[in-house]
Specification:
D-Maltodextrin-Binding Protein, domain 2, about 40% helix, alpha/beta
Length: about 425
Amino acid sequence: MDHSPRGFTRRRLLQVGAALGGAMLLPGAITHAWAAGSDAPELTTVRVGFIPLTDCAPVIMAALKGFDKKYGISIVPSKEASWAAVRDKLVSGELDAAHMLYGMLYGLELGIAGKTHPMANLMTLNQNGQAITLSTDLLDKGVKDAEGLARYVAASAPGTHTFAHTFPTGTHAMWLYYWLAAAGIHPFDDVRTVVVPPPQMVMNMRIGNMVGFCVGEPWNARAINDRIGFTAATSQAVFPDHPEKILGTRAAWVEQHPHTARALVAAVMEAARWIDASPENRRETARVLAKRAWLNTKEQYLTGRMLGEYDNGAGARWQDQHPMRFFSDGEVSFPWHSDGMWFLTQFRRWGLLRSDPDYEAIAARINRNDIWQQAASAVGGIATPSGLLRTSTLMDGSRWDGTRPAEYAARFALSRRGDTA
């Protein structure tokens, strides 16, 4: 995959900076806007919500490894039961920030994931590392991949088979819909889709509530271990190096606590760099996350896929070329505007939006590149990308580069749902 950023002119960067309140820095610039004693965080304790998934790792390790103390704050991770709970607590102010589904934050901004609320994306926490699991019952019936599933679904009455994702505007919904549609299966007309919290996926498949689901790790690996499911596709096979979870918060919180926001991003960014620094650090992270306070599962369910070692539970094993990534020289964490805009194109595709939004303006409003750049300067050794867009090629060969988003969305057969906004 080509994920190189598209070059931006100096004038364009200044225009983007104006849209972000004048705080955007030019590539390569180092900010010394704070001096000793003048940049103290407004809050010393920051409560950050998380769902028990492998990709909450940078938040948890930032707190446990003391990276937060280095920047003058104490991160208090708060385990939540569902993405809806994360949404509600974040909007109400019970949480300061959260490990969030990328699409959920954009859905909140637009009022299609709950009541409209101005939101802010501080950084991306990870790329890749999710999967689509199908039941072993389907495997026993000869369904091994999307093409086999399409034949199986076509032989059944519409809506006979149920698939689960984790939140209506979330990443897992979009990966599942994209994968199904690429095989000719309409995710609303041909099958039934439901929302299930990540830790409840395996149990619900075990009792027969669905034949497939899309979720983050370690729950796909757990389904294989429990012999109730197999990995039909990884999310990185759908969209290599895709954005996944973000560190999200309310726009008003950033305005009220800009130094705290900078310190939070710096601490989590440094933790992400530590995780990716070596296989042993990833193994240690897996050992920590498996504990009761965090994911409450077995270490073996986390380690393999954290190292990019995949066994699909149906006879295939491989070293993935696009494993879960947390840092990659800072490129992972950068708030690429094109990443958020891609989710907007899918909201339009699936009828969650009745008309094309102002893609670029929404991305510029949500992504706090100014905070990211201040944090990157504080951490040190992190290069700022030369633009705000990157290029990707998805499983069906479609190319996404962040330009002409309305045209991109229109390439797909647009669907309409009764709950559109």
